[in-house]
Amino acid sequence: MILVSSCLAGLEVRYNGTHCLNNKIMKLIEEKKAITVCPELLGGFLTPREPAEIIGGNGEDVLDGKAKVIEKSGRDVTELYIKGAYTTLKKAIDVNATVVVLKDYSPSCGSSMIFNGEFIGEKIAGNGVTAALLKRNGLQVISEKQITNNFDEII
């Protein structure tokens, strides 16, 4: 089974109430080869919600207590991101996920790139909290760009 970010399947769960539909991912869902997950909703957030970024590092640093996830207004939401990551890990294990496709740039789902923590739109290399936890637990985590470019290899 493939686990995919809900927003990539066209569900309007992003912080601003939008989605990032990827037609190849939608096809996997229609063929019952993939199911959706939104770590932020699993962590307790609602849609829409305030944008958040990792301050002081990346997802690995958040898991190690060295960085925080902060909303643009300054509210610390680290615990909700960690809760969502662990709930996503449990779901991945429960469905025997072979690969997890996550939305890049997200403080949860970024699997290769995240925002730099300054709320200015700059991106840096790094994992979000959920991507970091899943990788630590041996799961293959990729971005939507990788499934678009290597679709046949992944399925």
Outline:
The protein is an alpha/beta fold and 155 residues long.
What is the structural class? alpha/beta
The number of helical runs is 7
Strand order of the largest sheet: 2-1-5-8
The N- and C-terminal alpha carbons lie at a distance of: 9 Å
Protein name: DUF523 domain-containing protein
InterPro entries: 2-thiour_desulf
Organism: Lysinibacillus antri
Structure overview:
The protein has 155 residues and is an alpha/beta fold. It has one domain. Helix content is 34%, strand content 19%. The strands form three sheets. It has a four-stranded parallel sheet with strand order 2-1-5-8, with helices on both faces. Strands 3-4 form a two-stranded antiparallel ribbon. It starts with a strand and ends with a helix. The model has no long low-confidence stretch (mean pLDDT 95).
Kindly list the characteristics that best describe this protein.
DUF523 domain-containing protein; 155 residues; two-stranded antiparallel sheet; 2-thiour_desulf; alpha/beta; 7 helices
Map the helices and strands.
Blueprint: E1 2-5, H1 23-30, E2 34-37, H2 39-43, E3 52-55, H3 59-63, E4 68-71, H4 78-94, E5 99-102, E6 113-115, E7 123-125, H5 129-136, E8 141-143, H6 144-149, H7 151-154
Parallel strand pairs: 1-2, 1-5, 5-8
Antiparallel strand pairs: 3-4, 6-7
Helix pairs in contact: 4-5
